[in-house]
Amino acid sequence: MRQSFLVLGAVAVLGGCSNSYDVGGSVLVSPPTNLSYVVDPAGSGTAPTGVLLHWDYDNDLDLAVWHLYSRASTGDSYVLRGSTTSNSFHDEGLPHLQYFVTAEDIDGNETSGSNVVTVDERLALAQPTTLTSTSLNGAIALTWTDNAYQADPAGFSIYRVYSASYNLDTGICGTTWALEGTTVAPEFISGVLTNGVPRCFAVSAQSVEGFESLWSPIRSDTPRPDAHNVVVYARQSQDAGSGFRFWLDQNGSGRVDAGELGLVLSGSSNLDDFSVERDPSGALFLTPVRSGTGVAVYGSSPVADLTGIDYAPNITYGTGGIEALPGWGYVFEMNGGDGSFRYGAVRISHVGQSFLILDWSFQTDPGNPELLRRGK
Asked: Is 284 exposed, middle or buried (CB count within 10 Å of its CB: 0-12, 13-18, 19+)?
């Protein structure tokens, strides 16, 4: 955590230093140490609704109680804010500007004060400068610029993702915003959404002290059923949803039914045509799993759309993982289970830290290298 600090040139602590508050005689315990704080975030552009103060625990048997002192401005005197037998204190409501804590021993003697912490809103991070979205089936994938973390890695804590209803006819977001979740990565999947129901989204950055930035630009999007934009997670992030199977003949009929196409499975399943794996550098790889499955990069440059992958090349397909890059196409050769090969293709539209988004196509005719897009 960054050190909380005094406002330069503006703080006049009693006695000229932060530990000069001494109201006792021969004190049996030591002054508290390492006072720090975290404010309660309350949404973009609004003041915190409270502050949680914490200091090092002292198990001295002569310790009776801790006392919290605070002041609202540097021109005020410190007043007793509260007392506690815990080494933390939650001050609900708009926080005061400065706090320190003392310890009282069993004889009623009080120590000098701890370090002073200043609740300084200037520690708030910059707002995310962009926010983009991708419509998914029952979900929305959000990505944004990571400028808050990059500008101050030591001061960054999390991103907070908010959503509200959206009126498509008027182009206005609802007034009730809900916290969708938090993440340390500049990406988030908002799931369990109703297809066809639009929503607004915004993201803020929270500092280690709890201060929340202004919101990113607001983005509206609508989840929809579609064979495009399939999310597959990195297995190292979560096993569920980190594997993909172009076609799984679930009833053994040999007939390709719509419900058997484009299945997202667990990455540890041996039924996968491929899983998404993340290496130590953070790169994501398409890794063949099922025996008889191989993969190759399509062409020597990115493809504008999945329809650009029209024919599976007559080459040797590798069985090792191949790095997934945005905009590039990949062709898979698979054992069809009937003595012939089948072919499928994917185009990667997004590669993040914990998941990627792809479009896919599959040729249902055994041995036919012509890749035609099929819906689920």
From this structure: buried
Looking at the 3D structure of the chain, how many domains does it have? 3
pLDDT digits (tens, 9 = 90+) for 312-365: 999 999 999 999 999 999 999 998 767 788 999 999 999 999 999 999 988 888
Q: Residue 45: what residue type? A: G
Mean pLDDT of 15-42: 73
Do residues 288 and 353 both lie within one domain? yes
pLDDT in tens, 236-264: 999 999 999 999 988 877 777 778 889 99
- Say if CB 243 and CB 266 are below 8 A apart: yes
Are the C-beta atoms of residues 77 and 7 closer than 8 Å to each other?
A: no
Q: Taking residues 81-90, what's their average pLDDT?
A: 97
pTM of the complete model: 0.73
Domain-ending residue, one of 103, 122, 141: 122
Question: Is 359 in contact with 227 (CB distance < 8 Å)?
Answer: yes
Which positions ≥6 away from 17 have C-beta within 8 Å? none
* CATH number of the structural domain spanning residue 73: 2.60.40.10
Q: Residue 272, exposed/middle/buried by CB under 10 A (0-12, 13-18, 19+)?
A: buried
| Per-residue pLDDT tens digits for 284-303 | 999 999 999 999 999 999 99
Q: pLDDT for 133-154, tens place per residue?
A: 988 888 999 999 999 999 999 9
The position carrying tokens 């708009």 is 94
Look up the domain containing 355 and give its range.
Answer: 230-362
Question: Does residue 297 sit within a domain?
Answer: yes
Residues 148, 101, single domain; the answer is no
pLDDT value for 307? 80
Query: Final residue of a domain: which of 157, 192, 221?
Result: 221
